[in-house]
Amino acid sequence: MPAHLYQQLSSRFPAREKTAFETQDGVRHSYGEVDAGAARMAGALAALGVKPGGRVAVQVEKSLSAVLLYLGCARAGAVFLPLNTAYTPAEVEYFLTDAEPTVFVCDPKRRESLADAAKAAKVAHVETLDPSGHGSIVDRAAGMPATFADAERGPDDLAAILYTSGTTGRSKGAMITQENLASNARALVECWRFTDKDVLIHALPIYHTHGLFVAINTLMMAGGCMIFLPKFDADQVMSYMPRATSLMGVPTFYTRLLQHKGLTKDATAHMRLFVSGSAPLLAETHREFFSRTGHMILERYGMTETNMITSNPYEGERVPGAVGFPLPGVSLRVADPETGAHLAQGEIGMIEVKGPNVFKGYWRMPDKTKAEFRADGYFITGDLGMIDRRGYTHIVGRGKDLVITGGFNVYPKEIETEIDGMPGVIESAVIGVPHPDFGEGVTAVVVRAKGAGISETDISAALEGKLAKFKQPKKIFFVDDLPRNTMGKVQKNLLRDQYKTIYGG
Ligand code: AMP
């Protein structure tokens, strides 16, 4: 098997005329066109002086040209470095300075505001690409041949650097190799039964591992088709379901679909698979989706550094609130966060993983890399979880979200699950905030259902006797919505900041 990601994908491409992407204007782009488009992009990058191993930073809106740019990087052996479109020029300057790309591609509208950042980082070429897929990099590619001799790459060579969202401290560049991506795509094709008959509704952003690698690599590895939408819109997604087979989403996709009156068994009859990941899917959402559609959402777990780690089974029980079993070739264990001692089944601890999916380390941060790997090669994910009797993995939260109150560990998920199950509650987030006596005080932030009158006293009373006293929230606040980032993750750091003075600690 070739080591090169693109060769692994292209060696499995179906007939050249088969559709790979369909854009929202109804235009279909065949595998042959995509292959030629990627060759042209690779040619353009090589002509700009991008060498194998050189970086290409990209901050653009989602478009088919942006996918061709990604695939062009793969063909040229360049390291693709996608940046969240929300990053400010100051943040972009940090990434460019840190990664030293040869080429930076940005939206023409932002070219001027990013010029100083590119100059400060001594980027040799700034190119453009707009949301409709036009720009200087596309013009350059248009003049290039439709074939390209793919650069030689080994399994350990870098394919991408993805900066982690970094809610604390500096963002770190996760170095993702050719084989990290290829092995994960192969595993997902197998586990989720993707074939060239599949049509995936692609409504995720493509600067993140989920939309970029999980969706695109997996579908291309299977020779399937993607309906490529600029963003998630419930009406639009519903309108494609009668001829699509699958959807990959973050939990908010599913809560929004549940608010759509058109979501029925009939409307989803042509679909075979709904996947959720990137943030916890509420068990309630899972159950409600099943009762409305007859489909059990398949929840999986992964992260930028490790690609996908576990998945609920395709056949077999998909357990609400659990993330399933390790993918083929992936090893997962739970360890004591302090000592690293391996913990028994059922015990909560740090999730550690090893396998061909696990990244090579953080770009130019050897000390941080060393600190996050065990001596035997396991990566310390930062997620706390446990393995149940049947081998399903459960995530109880990020290690940094653990609340330590009066010396006791409190796992927010346990309290959130109790509160979420109360009538009149949509969802909740439990955080620890400074407390003069306890170190941290357990605090709940709750979203009520429309018109529901459930009060702080009601919630506290319902938790009495269910949870040990130290786990019960000392204060409960009500909000209209929890703050979330674009991948649907609740931003607990913002909540901790907002409520940091409530106990006068
Ligand atoms: P990212 O690197 O942005 O993909 O974020 C990875 C983190 O998202 C993981 O370390 C988990 O904390 C969280 N995550 C991803 N999938 C799930 C899931 N199915 N359930 C709970 N948390 C998840």
Describe the model:
The chain is an alpha/beta fold and 505 residues long. The chain is built from 15 helices and 25 strands. Strands 2-1-10-9-11-12-13-14-15 form a 9-stranded mixed sheet. Strands 4-3-5-6 form a 4-stranded parallel sheet, with helices on both faces. A 4-stranded antiparallel sheet has the order 16-17-19-20. Strand 12, helix 11 (283-293) and strand 13 (298-303) form a beta-alpha-beta unit. Adenosine monophosphate binds at residues 164-165, 209, 277-280, 299, 301-304, 323, 381, 383, 395, 398, 487.
Quick structural gist:
This protein has 505 residues and is of the alpha/beta class. It contains 15 helices and 25 strands.
What descriptive keywords fit this protein?
505 residues, alpha/beta, 15 helices, 25 strands, 25% strand, globular, binds adenosine monophosphate
Bound molecules: adenosine monophosphate
- Number of DSSP E strands: 25
**Structural class by helix and strand composition:** alpha/beta
Through-space gap between termini = 59 Å
Count of helical stretches: 15
